[in-house]
């Protein structure tokens, strides 16, 4: 009945399912353990009629025109440039920490000195990872680095990850650099926006195809059996001769053979207010204050007009399989080595494709997942050709 099975209806699985169904006319079965499509990008209307992101804020941004054009097949856009403030010593300053932030927290002459030295050392409009700035030999820049590290990075990282910035992979700490600019936008990508009808509508448009069948509320292990010694896959107890595209956690895929891969999870607290807006910008970070990491107000993102508003507070926590969801892989050398053991188990199985944040144990932005899915389709699936 099916030529491809896709496990997971997030961006990785949905993009591949859409491409296969529309471009090759082959039959695809999408299996999703949750009761909805869209993965962590799923959004819905709350009881007050506010469009919320059920798994935390998702702001779309990309440098890749190909990705933007592809997604634009399934949505029109609201022009939106995300801004974030961080509560530092009682005042809200732009995040990533930039020249405006410096002038806000330091006296004029000190701020001017720091600004000049940053520009002379690194150049204007440059982004510098905090751990690199800490290595500076200049006493003033070292002072600035220690200030930003203590006030912005350390507390937030400890709350978010449960470890210090030094214990994290540089690719993670480098995601929020010091920005030598007066640009308060959180992202500088040329393509930024929010889907006009929400993310869920994108997935509905992707998966509405006669060649795609979606099964919700289903753990794939209920209907699929895999013999990792022979490579044989059974679907509904029948031999499946097609390919399996897997976007879930790889340790679960292999029954935790080598132990559990560490992730951080999140807990969300949604609150409604009978007012127009209560925050200055979309998101406010709390590096040191309170036990949540950030608060997002959705109406800033969606431009929705309503008499009430909804915020979400995010609390980071350890991931416990079966209890909460794995959100962020904790990337370091030992965890990467554990992941490689799992990947080696399926390396020679040509009928299995691994893709996505969980399957690849990677901290992906949405656009990177979409780009990876399009690449896999072009290189591994399209060459097989269309149905006769």
UniProtKB/TrEMBL annotation:
Pfam families: GLF, NAD_binding_8. Its cofactor is FAD. Keywords: FAD, Flavoprotein, Isomerase. Signal peptide: none annotated. Residues 151-363 form the UDP-galactopyranose mutase C-terminal domain. InterPro entries: UDP-GALP_mutase (IPR004379), UDP-GalPyranose_mutase_C (IPR015899). SUPFAM superfamilies: FAD-linked reductases, C-terminal domain, Nucleotide-binding domain. Belongs to the UDP-galactopyranose/dTDP-fucopyranose mutase family. This is UDP-galactopyranose mutase. It comes from Cohnella xylanilytica.
């Amino acid at each position: 009945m099916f030529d491809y099975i896709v496990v997971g209806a997030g961006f990785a699985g949905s993009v591949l399912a859409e491409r296969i169904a529309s471009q090759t006319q082959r039959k695809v079965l999408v299996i999703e353990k949750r009761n909805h499509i869209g993965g962590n990008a799923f959004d819905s209307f709350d009881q007050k009629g506010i469009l919320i992101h059920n798994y935390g804020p998702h702001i779309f941004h990309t440098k890749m025109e190909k990705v933007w054009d592809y997604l634009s097949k399934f949505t029109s856009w609201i022009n939106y440039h995300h801004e974030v403030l961080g509560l530092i010593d009682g005042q809200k300053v732009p995040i990533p920490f930039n020249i405006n932030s410096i002038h806000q927290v330091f006296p004029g002459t000190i701020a001017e000195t720091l600004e000049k030295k940053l520009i002379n050392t690194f150049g204007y409009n440059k982004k510098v990872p905090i751990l690199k700035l800490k290595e500076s030999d200049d006493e003033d820049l070292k002072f600035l680095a220690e200030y930003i590290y203590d006030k912005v990075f350390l507390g937030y990282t400890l709350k978010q990850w449960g470890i210090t910035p030094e214990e994290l992979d540089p690719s993670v700490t480098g995601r929020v650099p010091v920005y030598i600019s007066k640009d308060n936008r959180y992202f500088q990508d040329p393509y930024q926006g929010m889907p006009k009808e929400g993310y869920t509508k994108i997935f509905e448009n992707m998966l509405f195809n006669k060649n795609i069948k979606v099964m919700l509320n289903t753990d794939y292990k209920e209907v699929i059996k895999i013999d990792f010694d022979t490579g044989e896959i059974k679907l509904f107890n029948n031999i499946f001769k097609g390919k399996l595209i897997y976007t879930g956690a790889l340790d679960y895929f292999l029954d935790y053979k080598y132990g559990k891969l560490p992730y951080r999870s999140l807990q969300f607290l949604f609150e409604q207010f009978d007012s127009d807006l209560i925050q200055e910008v979309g998101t406010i970070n709390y590096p040191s204050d309170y036990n949540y990491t950030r608060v997002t107000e959705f109406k800033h993102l969606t431009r929705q007009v309503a008499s009430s508003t909804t915020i979400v507070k995010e609390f980071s926590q350890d991931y416990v399989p079966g209890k909460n969801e794995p959100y962020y892989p904790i990337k370091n050398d030992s965890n990467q080595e554990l992941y490689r053991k799992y990947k080696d188990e399926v390396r020679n199985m040509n009928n299995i494709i691994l893709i996505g944040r969980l399957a690849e144990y990677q901290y992906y932005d949405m656009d990177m997942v979409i780009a990876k899915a399009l690449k896999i389709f072009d290189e591994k699936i399209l060459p097989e050709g269309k149905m006769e």
